[in-house]
């Protein structure tokens, strides 16, 4: 519990750094751009906007990524409004950010070389799988029923459709995580020469 509280306090301290605010803002903007390139397969819509939120969680932790997830949802609605604004989805977006921040933030600081790369990828893989299981399958399905979007379906049918979509998407997600996010971390630390200390 102390480690979780420490992660939140260290993450909140990141908000005092201009660098952190600027990079977070750029990643939120990138998320909006990626969102516009959704791949529509007919039976499923695939997008990789989660990568920006995952990067924020990895770099700045749960406090920052929680707010970034909420901001992404609100901005997404303002940029491309589609009907009524539903606050529950904003909370779900914040929870998505929270997952990446709790699992990936500062967990690899004692590692070096290939061990460090493995630690980063494993934690991000775990975070993505939890994101899919908790946010995509449970929270989004529940929110859709709450707002009446799935009134013509049973819970089982709705979850089955989401499971199929996410099983198709997950391998691509994990490949992109492995290809992009360790490089993002390395570039970030190289540019800012940020010395990570043990959490």
Q: What is the strand and helix layout of this fold?
A:
Blueprint: H1 2-14, H2 18-35, E1 39-40, E2 45-46, H3 50-79, H4 87-104, H5 113-146, H6 155-192
Antiparallel strand pairs: 1-2
Textual characterization of the structure:
This protein is mostly helical and 199 residues long. The chain has one domain (2-192): Arp2/3 complex 21 kDa subunit ARPC3, CATH 1.10.1760.20. The protein is built from six helices and two strands. The protein has helices spanning 2-14, 18-35, 50-79, 87-104, 113-146, 155-192, and strands spanning 39-40, 45-46. The chain has a two-stranded antiparallel sheet. Strand 1 and strand 2 form a beta hairpin.
